[in-house]
Here is the input.
Amino acid sequence: MPEEWALSLYVPWIWAILYGGKRHENRTWKLGERHIGRRIWLHASLGNGPRQMETERQAMIEMAALDPKTIGAIASPNVPSPSLEWCLAARGLILGSVVVTAVEIHSVSPWFVGPYGFKLSDPVALARPVPARGKQMPWRVPADVLEKLREPTCGLRP
Here is the structure.
């Protein structure tokens, strides 16, 4: 079985990727070539408490105001609300996946702030998120977690 990788992010930004049209993940470091063109799991980090979570959530909503797709998603009854409660409950879970198509140093996207932007496509949210321990850099998903991610009730596309 080929190895699979995950990236840990603050929860509001995963919401924006999975539901709100955010197509760049910004980092100060460049993602390795082995990840380009591959699907990567999105893990909600535990690293922010309620106060910092609310700050991140408000920043995401302010950035969303620049992108009409995101504003529509925030108001949609078909997606979970990016409420503080939802964000706090999602910590420590793999919430979905996305394909990393490139690493950019320039973009006109309102979501790009650099210095590196991982260009993302084809977001897939899980119907049933899976608990996992994250790391600060891309990390290999352990076999026991992959097994849970492959269960039909997770809602992952084959």
In short: The helical segments are 11-19, 50-64, 68-75, 84-90, 143-149. The first strand starts at residue 5 and ends at 9. Residues 128 and 154 are 5 Å apart (CA to CA).
